[in-house]
Structures are given as C-alpha cells and as structure tokens.
Amino acid sequence: VLPFTYSYGNSVLQTHIYAGASICLGQSMLYPKLIAEDLNKASITGFSGVPSTFQILLHKTSFAKIHPQLRYITQAGGSMSVTTTKELLEALPNTDIYVMYGQTEASARLTYLPPARLLEKAGSIGIPIPDVELAISDESGKLLGPNETGELIAKGDNIMQGYLSNPTATEQTITGDWLHTGDLGYRDIDGFYYIKGRQKQMIKSGANRIHPEEIEEVILECDAV
C-alpha cells in the first residue's frame, strides 16, 4: 500500500524483488476494509506501513478481530505511539513487528528495533542495521555519550554521495563521512537510539524547548483521533 514514489515504498519493492518474493499491490489505504480482507484472502506473509496505516486498520476494519497470518510487519515513516504498538502486539501475537528508521539519503534504512525487545524499548528506533554506524553529535561536532541529546548522524556504504547539482546542500548535510539527519535524539546505555524531534521544527516557548512529536504522541492516545 506504500507509494513507490517515496523511498520507503520504493525500498520495499526493490528488496522484495531482489529476494525473489511475490508482491501483492493494494488499492492504497483509501479503501482500508479491502486491504484487511486481502491480507487474509491472498495469504500475505509480510506487510509494510506507516503509523497511520496500522491505526486505520486496527480501528476501522476487521484487522484486529480477524487476524491475518502475517509472518512479519515493518513500520517506518514516523514514530508509532506506545498505545498502537501494544494494540498491534495484541492483534498479532504470532507476528514479528519491526519498527524501523531511515532517510532517503541513506537509501533508505538506518536502524531497526528487534521484535523481541519491542515493549522493553518502546519508543526506540532501535539499533543500527549491519554496516551502519550511528552517533549523537552536538552543534560543534563533538560526539556525545549515552542519554545526552544532540543530532543523530550516520555513516556507511548506503549513505548518498550528495545532492545532484547542489554542492551547497551537500556540504550542509555531509561532513566527512557523516550524514547529518536533522533529527534530535539520544542513545541509552544499551545502545538503543531514540528520536525526540526534528531540529528545524523545535518550538521555543520562553526558556522551554518543545518537540511537536511529543505533543502528537499525546494526541494520538485520544480515541477521537
């Protein structure tokens, strides 16, 4: 159901073709009831979506009552609330749930949260995928330690060379081998990373710094939303 014009959908398409998988194209999330029915009719074993995909399936379809026989699902494209995570675990007790994080500039994946630690590390984007190195940096470029908030930076063979015909933007985004994601976050003492918000979207109210994502998480807990 993911559009192939975006990095997430495009990466799902290409990796499944590479692995020799069969692909079932949905009619987008405009008709969620049909998607929920097709998951069972076609015996789909893997499904990928963004947080709203799963919120719609859980609350607007038979998805939570008639459990599809999914071997795994993947979620990226934004943070998923702890409430939605718990609802998915209840609806899909035998399904591996992978929370992931990435960027188009990283073609397209940087981290994943191992399903076995989904509740223990709820809210985390997980650990780096193989051959990717992550760090937290302050504004001067100094690498920070556990539980210190700064910008998430990444390096690895999957990082882009730069923006086409735009050296200025490239210099602003890549320093040495490091990609500056623009996301603020921290890592815990176990090496699991957490995102607090976008660097450019922070709200400053007096002496307080507010991350809109934290407000969104509270709003998404409301049944009316």
What does this structure look like?
The chain has 225 residues and is of the alpha+beta class. The protein folds into two domains: 1-101, Rossmann fold (3-Layer(aba) Sandwich); 131-225, Luciferase, Domain 3 (Luciferase, domain 3). Helices cover 26% and strands 25% of the residues. The chain contains six helices and twelve strands. It has helices spanning 7-19, 32-41, 51-60, 82-91, 167-173, 212-219, and strands spanning 46-49, 72-75, 96-101, 111-113, 127-128, 132-137, 150-156, 174-175, 178-187, 193-198, 203-205, 208-210. The strands form three sheets. It has a five-stranded mixed sheet with strand order 1-2-3-4-5. Strands 6, 7, 8, 9 and 10 form a five-stranded antiparallel sheet that branches. It has a two-stranded antiparallel sheet with strand order 11-12. Helix 3 packs across helix 4 (82-91).
Would you give the CATH topology of the largest domain?
A: Rossmann fold
- Number of individual domains: 2
* CA radius of gyration: 18 Å
Low-confidence segments: none
- Summed over residues and divided by their number, the pLDDT gives a mean of 91
- Approximately what portion of the residues adopt beta-strand conformation? 15-25%
Helical fraction equals 25-40%
Silhouette: globular
N-end to C-end Cα span: 22 Å
CATH architecture of the largest domain: 3-Layer(aba) Sandwich
Task: Please list the strands of the largest sheet in the order they lie side by side.
Answer: 1-2-3-4-5
**How would you classify the helix and strand content by structural class?**
alpha+beta
Q: Major sheet: size, sense and barrel closure?
A: 5 strands, mixed
Number of strands: 12
- Element-level helix/strand string: HHEHEHEEEEEHEEEEEH
The level-1 CATH class of the largest domain: Alpha Beta
Number of alpha- plus pi-helical segments = 6
